Amino acid sequence: MKLLSLSISIAVAIVSIIVFRDQVLDFAIASFDSILKHINNLASDPSSANSTTNSTVESDSAYYNPSEQPVADDMSVPRAISKVFLAVEQAEGAGARVRRSIGTPQLRQFSPFLMLDHFSIKPGAGFPDHPHRGQETITYLLTGGVDHEDFAGNAGTIEAGDLQFMTAGRGIMHAEMPRQNPDGSANVGLQLWVDLPAHLKSCEPRYRDLKAAEIPQADVDDGRVHIKVISGRAAGVDSVKDLAYTPVWILDVEIKPGGRLAQPVPRGFNVFSYQLEGAAVFGHGDAKRTVEQYHNCVFEPEGDAVNVEVPETASGNARFVLVAGQILDQKVVQYGPFVLNSPEEVRQAMFDYQFHTNGFERAKDWASEIGKSMVH
């Protein structure tokens, strides 16, 4: 019996090597290069032998916190509008509906942003067990509740107005499932995928939750403009720091009819808005454009402020998220939930996930409890 088991194991190994010979070769080359690099590092700096991955990540994490924050004044240069387009609704996950803007032919990538989904998840639908590597996800829940669970034993729920910042790093497998609301209503929110700098793609996974009550708020223009400062700075109010590795500003803005806002944005950041409710007029001078509900407004990289207003004659308030992120000067190669910098790294991620190595060890035989709630 032992001999039979050994023979089967050897046969499976041989077949696996034949089927995945390209990935195995790439893995071997990558491993050999990594060993050589490590040996060279030790030779040039013996003290590096005592350093750890986590300490390197923390010391190399660059949060945008300049000594002089951007300020909008008469000398500010308004950002021009690059394009405005509708986020078309489509199916995603298991029964969920999303309006995707970033990550479509209209806007494939917009560094550091990889994807933006405005999701609606009804009971019996959701995002069951799936992997990630190489990016961060930011989930902002607008209504309802969403449960989360991963292969490391982390679990929790975000409610309306809460956010979760997840760093996938070297690898995570998790599930995101909607709360079953008593009235059968859908759970609605935004999920933004943000690229990680190349030197942080192998960091350990982590989470940062931000509760609605913790989000600083500001009112300007005699109360006609209300801003939730989720991340970044607005109206002299700073957000909670240390939520994501890649520097990102997120502002939830609501403007009443007659309200105006000139919001400073950092140079070197890409900026866009997504219209949640009503319509707002963005831009400056003759280049103003009206942006309707479910539309994404993309701004040119030049300039240091975004101008927006809602006409006095508007029938209601306008609400949108204004998002800015530091442009990363790096190549992006994406295959589904794996976001790396080269085709070789993507193949490596697929190999690691398939064979439960290099960050995916705990994915073997793991199944979330919340994923079992799916209706089959």
How would you describe this protein?
- It is a single chain.
- This protein is α+β, with helices and mostly antiparallel strands and 376 residues long.
- The chain folds into two domains: 40 residues; 246 residues, Jelly Rolls (Sandwich).
- Helices cover 17% and strands 38% of the residues.
- It has four helices and 26 strands.
- The strands form six sheets. It has a seven-stranded antiparallel β-sheet, with no helix packed on it.
- A hairpin with a 2-residue loop joins strand 15 and strand 16.
- Helix 2 crosses helix 4.
- The longest helix is centred in the N-terminal third of the chain and has 24 residues.
- The protein is globular and about 60 Å long.
Biggest sheet details:
7 strands, antiparallel
Percent range for β-strand residues: 35-45%
CATH architecture of the largest domain: Sandwich
Element-level helix/strand string: HHHEEEEEEEEEEEEEEEEEEEEEEEEEEH
Count every helix, treating DSSP H or I runs of 4 or more residues as helices: 4
How far is the N terminus from the C terminus?
39 Å
CATH topology of the largest domain: the name is Jelly Rolls
The CATH class name of the largest domain reads Mainly Beta
Radius of gyration: 23 Å
Quick check: average pLDDT? 84
Fourth CATH level, the homologous superfamily of the largest domain: Jelly Rolls
Overall strand count: 26
Specify the helix fraction band.
10-25%
